[in-house]
Structure to design on (495 residues):
């Protein structure tokens, strides 16, 4: 597609790694495919993070800091990212976001005064107020949802309608505006939804921001049209049939793997260990960078893993109630557990981090026990790895429902980090998914491979064939350009 490099696209991600990474990936995709300049706007410390993550030779990606001081918002000094905040004060960060509005408004206003308005503003749903700024300057606006459409549709429906407050005695309730009859069990609600009253800080924030985003010109989703139809239908009914685009996965996992391999990542301890395991024999366990389970759950999971007899790599973090970024203590696990697993070459415990892409793409990996964060799901999908679900927060519960009920690549083991789990359940679910005799496990692996092929097809960008996600991004920018052209015509007529 021939385009002018003079166009500038503004991206405004939320301050969390699970949002910054997909936004940076989207920026790189836009810059390489359309030759536009891309400007990522954020707070100073997040801009520093992004600067370190930018690949070399990307002169057309600009990073712009907006003034922000966390200490002004009942937050610890230099805490501008969810990664460094405990859950108890996370809402303070959300409440501080509107303080960025005047600075963002001035930035856009200055561009307009210089007669260099951006082609469009693409913002996270946490910044619903960016819709107002865009409308004031008649700039095309889109929300880029880093999650899947199904999960976000349930998220929007619950926070905007709060059906769980209507019949508090009922264990299950229907979503009032969903494309299909969908019953939600209270155990599938995140803690802040369960504790919501309708007038609490979380409710007020979500109702305001989510409502504002529905006035946007369009929604982009880091998902694939073919396996996320129900969620996409929900948003198309709210915004319009031609205003919602699936453009994912925006991250190029294959390129990332090659790049990291050339930098020597394959020498990592976990890769050396997994290289010596049999094909499809290893269970990979990770709850992401911001989630953890309780100490009793951790103990039961470890006992179940040992009883199962299966090999595993487990990314361990301190349990609930402790600093998630602190040091891990062996007394949170059964006595001598790690030593026994090492001696039998049965399991590997990784502190805080493991090379997830390398592990998921490895031929020895069989299943991923995951918190069902969307980035992790896309990585697992991209390598045809089925999932054992253990959602903990936000839209993860909804993502788990998509995987299990709609796509068939998941079995849920547990929900949340406050509910009881028994080691017998751990053994049962692992055996169900990993046993060579399991019909369910075989079906999940078959479907996971089918999803992998769907993703591969969606991102093909060749002369004779363009995948659905490629076409989605092209259609989005065609609409943005049409809007800008119409605006210029209107201005000429008015003059």
């Amino acid at each position: 597609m021939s385009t002018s490099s003079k166009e500038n696209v503004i991206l405004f991600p939320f301050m969390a790694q699970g949002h910054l990474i997909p936004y940076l990936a989207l920026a790189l995709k836009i810059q390489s495919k359309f030759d536009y300049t891309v400007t990522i706007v954020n707070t100073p410390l997040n801009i520093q993070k992004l600067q370190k993550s930018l690949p070399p030779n990307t002169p057309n990606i600009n990073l712009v800091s907006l003034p922000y001081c966390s200490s002004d918002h009942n937050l610890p000094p230099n805490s501008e990212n969810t990664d460094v905040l405990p859950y108890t004060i996370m809402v303070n960060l959300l409440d501080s976001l509107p303080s960025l509005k005047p600075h963002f408004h001035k930035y856009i206003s200055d561009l307009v005064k210089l007669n260099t308005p951006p082609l469009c503003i693409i913002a996270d749903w946490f910044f619903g107020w960016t819709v107002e700024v865009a409308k004031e300057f008649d700039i095309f606006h889109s929300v880029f949802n880093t999650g899947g459409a199904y999960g976000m549709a349930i998220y929007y429906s619950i926070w905007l309608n709060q059906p769980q407050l209507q019949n508090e005695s009922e264990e299950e309730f229907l979503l009032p505006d969903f494309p299909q009859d969908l019953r939600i069990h209270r155990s599938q609600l995140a803690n802040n939804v369960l504790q919501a009253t309708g007038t609490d800080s979380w409710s007020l924030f979500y109702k305001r921001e989510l409502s504002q985003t529905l006035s946007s010109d369009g929604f982009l989703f880091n998902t694939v049209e073919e396996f996320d139809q129900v969620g996409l239908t929900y948003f198309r009914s709210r915004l319009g049939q031609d205003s919602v685009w699936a453009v994912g996965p925006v991250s190029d996992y294959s390129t990332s793997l090659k790049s990291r391999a050339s930098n020597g990542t394959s020498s990592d301890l976990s890769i050396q260990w997994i290289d010596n395991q049999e094909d499809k024999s290893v269970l990979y366990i990770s709850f992401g960078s911001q989630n953890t389970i309780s100490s009793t759950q951790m103990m039961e999971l470890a006992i179940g893993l040992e009883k199962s007899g299966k090999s595993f790599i487990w990314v361990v973090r301190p349990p609930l109630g402790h600093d998630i970024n602190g040091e891990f203590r062996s007394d949170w696990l059964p006595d001598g557990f790690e030593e026994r697993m090492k001696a039998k070459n049965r399991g590997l415990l990784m502190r805080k981090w493991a090379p997830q892409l390398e592990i998921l793409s490895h031929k020895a990996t069989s299943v991923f026990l995951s918190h069902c964060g969307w980035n992790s799901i896309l990585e697992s999908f991209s390598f045809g790895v089925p999932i054992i679900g253990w959602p903990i927060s936000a839209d993860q519960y909804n993502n788990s429902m998509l995987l299990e009920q709609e796509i068939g690549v998941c079995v849920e083991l547990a929900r949340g980090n406050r509910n009881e789990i028994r080691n017998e359940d751990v053994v049962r679910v692992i055996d169900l998914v990993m046993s060579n005799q399991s019909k369910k496990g075989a079906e999940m692996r078959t479907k996971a491979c089918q999803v992998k092929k769907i993703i591969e097809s969606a991102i093909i960008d060749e002369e004779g064939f363009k995948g659905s996600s490629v076409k989605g991004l092209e259609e989005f920018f065609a609409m943005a350009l049409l809007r800008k052209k119409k605006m210029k015509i209107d201005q000429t007529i008015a003059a």
